[in-house]
Amino acid sequence: MPKRSMCIAVPKKQAETTLSSAYRLELVDKTLEIQRDEDYVYIPLADQPSDEKLKSVRENAPRLELAVRVFKEKEHPASLEELLKDRLPPHMLSALPRAADFVGDIAIVELRPGLEDYKKTVGEAILKAIPRIRTVLAKEGAVAGTYRLRKFSLAAGESGTETRHREYGCEFVVDVAKAYFSPRLAHEHDRVASLVREGETVVDLFAGVGPFAIQIAKKHDAVKVYAVDVNPEAEEYLKRNIRLNRVNGKVSAILGDARQVAKERLSGVADRVIMNLPEKAFEYVDAACETLKNTGGTLHVYTFVKASESFEDVRNRLTDAVTSCGRRVDGFLFSGRVRETAPHEFQAVFDVKVSGSDG
After folding, report:
1. Which of 48, 124, 297, 329 could form a disulfide with 156 if both were Cys (CB 3.0 to 4.6 A apart)?
2. pTM given for the model
3. In CATH, which superfamily holds the domain spanning 80-160?
C-alpha cells in the first residue's frame, strides 16, 4: 500500500555513499521501497533526521535535499526460519545463522555444531530467500596463516569462490578462498578514504585485493597509494582491480613482506599508513614508522581488543610501540570499534598522529 514519507533526494553519483551512511545512522525506513528516476535516488526516512545526523550524511553528499514523496511498501519475503520450519527439527531452528557475509553474489555463513548435517537444506533456503545470491558457502574453520585465508565448503548453489563485489562506487574482483576480503569493513574503507587529503602519499601495508587503496584513489585526483601484500594471489586480484577501477596512475601494487618493502622501497615516503592486520599490527609498527616521512604523519592501526582491555590500555601500548621506533605520538585522532570478532573480543581502529623522527 502506498505511503507518504519524508525522504532524502540525492544525485545518483552520490547515492551509494549516502545510502550506506543513512543505514549506518538508522535513518532509513526499511519497510518502504527506495525510488529512482533519471537523475536522483530517493531514500525514505523512518523519522525526521536530527541536524547532527543530517550533517554527517551531507559530508559525502553536499547536494542532497529533503523532500516528501509517496513510496511503495516492501513485500516481505519469508524469513529463513519460516522457510525451514517444516524441514528442520524444531530445536535446530534456534541454531540458524542470524547473519551472513555477502561478497558479491556469494553468501558466507557460519553453521553452529549440529547444523552441519543440514548444510544443503539451509543453503538452499538462503538462495530462495535472497534471489541475488548464486552461491552459499559455509565457513570451515577460522581465518589462518600468513595470507589470512579461510576454508569453505559449498552449501548450495553454483560452485566457485570468485565474484565481483561493489562498494561505495568501486568494483572488486575477489576469490574469497584465495585472498582475504571482509565486506564488514566497508564503512572503514570509506571513512579512511574520506580522511585523505589531495597531494598525500599513502602506504597500505596489508592491501589485499585493494579496498582501501582503490577507494582512496577513486575519491581523490592527486594522491599516490602504494599497496603492499605478501600474498601473490591477492596481488594479482589487486592489479586486476586497479585496472577495473581505472586508477592505474594512482595505485602501485607491490608484492612482498611489509617490513622488507618498507625498508627497501618505501622508507620516508608516506603521509599516511594503513595497517589492517589486526592479528599482528603491533609487530609491524616499526615498518609503518619506517615508511612515514621525517615530518611525521598518520597511522590507521587495526587490532583485536579483548573485552578485559580498555581503549586506554591499547593507546598506551601503541604509544610505547611508536616511541620504541624513535617517533612520538602527538595524539589519537580517533578510536573506535569496527566489528565483533569472537566472544569477549572485537576489532578496533586507532588513528594515530605521529611526529617526525628523533634527531
Report:
1. 124
2. 0.80
3. Met-10+ protein-like domains (3.30.300.110)
